[in-house]
Amino acid sequence: MSELTQDRILEPGRISAVESADGVTRDAPPAAPKGKRPQHTGILLVVLGAVFMALLDATVVNVATPTMRTDLDTTGSALQLIVSGYTISYAALLITGARLGARHGFRTVFLTGLATFTLASLACGLAPSAGVLIAARVVQGLGAGLMVPQIYSLIQLTFEGPARARALSLYATVIAVAVVVGQVAGGLLVSADLFGTVWRPAFLINVPVGLALLVAAVRLLPVGTPRSAKGLDLPGLVTLTAALLLLVVPLVLGHEQHWPLWTTLCLAAAAPMFGVFVLVERGVARRGGAPLVPGRVLRSPDLVCGAAALFFGMAGYAGFLFSFSQHLQSGLGESATRAGLAFAPLALGVATGSLTWQKLPARWHLPMIAAASALAAAGYLGIGCTLRAGGQGGLVLPALQLLWGLGLGYTTSPLLTLALSRIDPADASDASGVLTTVPQLAQVVGVAAYGSVFLALADRPGTAGAAAPSAVASAQALYATALPVAAGTLLGALAILPLLRKRR
Fold first, then answer.
1. Residue 357 vs residues 96, 351, 354, 410: alpha-carbon distances, Å
2. 51-54: long-range contacts (C-beta < 8 A, 24 or more apart)?
3. How many CB atoms within 10 Å of residue 145?
4. Banded pLDDT at 457 (limits 50, 70, 90)
5. Per-residue pLDDT at 39
6. Average pLDDT of the chain?
7. What is the distance between the alpha carbons of residues 166 and 457, in angstroms, rounded to a whole number?
8. How many Å apart are CA 137 and CA 73, to the nearest integer?
9. How deeply is 495 buried, as exposed, middle or buried, from its count of CB atoms within 10 A (0-12, 13-18, 19+)?
């Protein structure tokens, strides 16, 4: 860690700027007024409320998509773009969003992102067509990409020691719970059909919540005057975004368009474009610039292994969740409410794992993550096998969902905490950008890849000459999807093995 050589303390309530030995001035923790406790609880509530809203919105649409398909008269590919358009823009901007926060102030960029997200939510709720909704979702993702990276940094710079560990654990818990609660909330909001608006309240609910968070953030978040010298690495942003689009767009659209030549060419170009991104990053570093993905941060084994395990776990989760939601409503004919409530055991398992894993001895944490990944994989396979014949699953289904949730809860929260636990506060913004990007990229790839497997095998509604999918066809498609999802989740367990060997 660089030795601090100068500390300029600003007026109480403002963030101080700290200049390190390498000549770069960085943000330091907020300075509390003498005799007063900083409003740590209020800050934590605001930022956790914001991330809960952002992640809730990333999943609430899973339950709403079948209703959107009917109401907007759209296709399965458009539904995937409604889900993935948000996540693509969100993931592409996260690292740059973290860099903007370091340059212009975490509070300022957080407020900008929150305001953008709230306005885009209004546009989503009022969208007259699938095309407008996809565009609004992209803007909504940009708002989240500005807002969410500041949350890691604000936690890192506001809390120290055990308090920071507790705050990061709460953050990880909120992430794990929000993505599941979104399923339940989506079902309730869609089925309520408030004022005949069908799926629209799933987005419009963000407007009053976002406004309330804006008011609270203006009052509670510390004002800072950062002096970061880091550039934005626009070439890196452009090449990374291009690589992502070359990978995701053909995966989303290919199956429905019967894999035309352009999809094959795009997929073939994706890997070389990622190679170009690596070369661009090395060039930026050689010129003394600040690459989008700093080599110093990536030299942390905890961050690299944790991020790899998180990628495999979240890709499987997002892809199977999308497919399972489609099966429940389009295959089994469940209402949005019943489909949403069907995920309650999953939410219970995630919450249980997220809130109890720290009670285990520290030496058990890494083996626990590997075992929990295997547990989640067993949940996927169990659900696929149980529903394969087209039935409802009976009491076995909620038990398997609980198993899936426990596996997710005992991996997601500890992985997020593990990956950040040894990061220097001076690198908080870069590490937060990298770590928040990984699960979002994973969800994009998961929905595109695993979702395409399901949609390609199911007898989908909305295509020429096709009726609603039969329960058996949809169930068999879900089973076929569960197999690669489980295999990918087990790869996440293998990603932890280097850390297990290192710490023996």
1. 32, 10, 6, 6
2. 51/148, 51/151, 51/171, 51/174, 51/175, 51/178, 52/174, 52/177, 52/178, 53/117, 53/206, 53/209, 53/210, 53/213, 54/90, 54/117, 54/144, 54/147, 54/148
3. 31
4. confident
5. 66
6. 78
7. 44
8. 18
9. buried
State the DSSP H helix or E strand holding residue 360, giving kind and residue range, or none if neither: none
Rounded to the nearest 10 degrees, the angle between the axes of helix 428-457 and helix 234-253 is 20
Q: Helix, strand, coil proportions of the chain in percent (round to 5)?
A: 75, 5, 20
Cα separation, 268 vs 266, in Å, equals 5
As a whole number of angstroms, the distance between CA 318 and CA 353 comes to: 18
Helix (H) or strand (E) holding 23, with range, is: none
Instruction: Return the structure tokens found at 307.
Output: 């991020």
Q: What is the pLDDT of residue 6?
A: 28
How many residues comprise the chain? 504
Which of 274-281's residues contact partners 24+ apart within 8 Å by CB, and which partners? 274/243, 276/239, 276/243, 277/236, 277/239, 277/240, 277/243, 280/235, 280/236, 280/239, 281/233, 281/236
How many beta carbons lie within 10 A of that of residue 317, not counting itself? 31
Cα 81 versus chain centre, distance:
16
Residue-wise burial string across 320-340, b where 16 or more C-beta atoms lie within 10 A, e elsewhere? bbbbbbbbbbbbbebebbebb
Q: Is the pLDDT of residue 164 over 60?
A: yes
* DSSP code string of 184-242: HHHHHHHHHTGGG-TTTHHHHTHHHHHHHHHHHHHHHSPEE---------HHHHHHHHH
Maximal C-alpha separation, the chain:
73
d(CA 170, CA 52): 11
Q: What tokens appear for 174 in the block?
A: 């909120």
The pLDDT assigned to 385 comes to: 94
Strand partners, 223: 14
Residue 390 neighbours by CB distance under 10 Å? 16
- How many C-beta atoms surround the C-beta of residue 223 within 10 A? 15
Cα separation, 20 vs 100, whole angstroms: 19
What are the contacts of 273-282 at 24+ separation with CB within 8 A? 273/239, 273/242, 273/243, 273/246, 274/243, 276/239, 276/243, 277/236, 277/239, 277/240, 277/243, 280/235, 280/236, 280/239, 281/233, 281/236
Give bridge partners of residue 4 from the DSSP assignment.
Answer: 20
pLDDT for residue 466: 44
- 223-224/14-20 β-pairing: parallel
Cα–Cα distance measured from residue 13 to residue 221, given in angstroms and rounded to the nearest whole number: 9
**Do residues 411 and 280 touch, judged by C-beta distance below 8 A?**
no
